Amino acid sequence: MAIFDHVGIAVSDYYASLGFYEKALAPLGIKLVMRMPAEIGQAGAGFGETLKPEFWIWEGGRTRPHVHIAFTAPDRATVDAFYAAAIAAGATDNGPPGVRAHYHANYYAAFVLDPDGHNIEAVCHQAA
Predict the structure, then answer these.
(1) Which Gene3D superfamilies match (predicted)?
(2) Pairing of the two strands 68-72 and 119-124
(3) In the chain, where are the structural domains located?
C-alpha cells in the first residue's frame, strides 16, 4: 500500500508550471490525467501513471517554504532522461544524475528546481 493517495502544491504561474511538469515528468511515464477548471475556484492539473492523479499543481501563488518531491524511476536511464527533459523544459540544475552514497550505495538520483524553486527529484534504488 502507498503512503499517500495524492499530493498537491500551489504554483505562481499555473500555465508555465503545467507545461514544465508535462515535459519533465514524461520520461517517468507520468502524464496529465485530469484538469480542474478555474470556475471551481482555482485551476488545477493532476498527473499520474494511470487515470488516477497522484500529483497536483494548483494556481494560487507559490507554496512557501519550497517543497521537495521525489518521483520514483524504474532505472538509472530514466533518471537521466528526467533530468534532461526537466532542464530542457526550463528547470534549474540542483544536482545532476549520480549516485548519492550517503543515502545508500544504489541511491541514483537527479535534482532540479521547478519554476517556483521547488526541489524536484527522480530517484532509482536499483543497482546499475
Answers:
(1) 2,3-Dihydroxybiphenyl 1,2-Dioxygenase, domain 1
(2) parallel
(3) 7-124
In whole angstroms, what is the distance from residue 4 CA to residue 25 CA? 18
The class (CATH top level) of 7-124 is alpha beta
CA distances from 92 to 1, 66, 99 (A): 33, 14, 19
Q: What is the pTM of this model?
A: 0.94
- Per the structure block, which three cell numbers stand in for 30? 507520468
Please state the separation of Cα 9 from the chain's center in Å: 11
Give CA–CA dist 34/51, Å, rounded: 8
pLDDT tens for 16-48 read 999 999 999 999 999 999 999 888 889 999 999
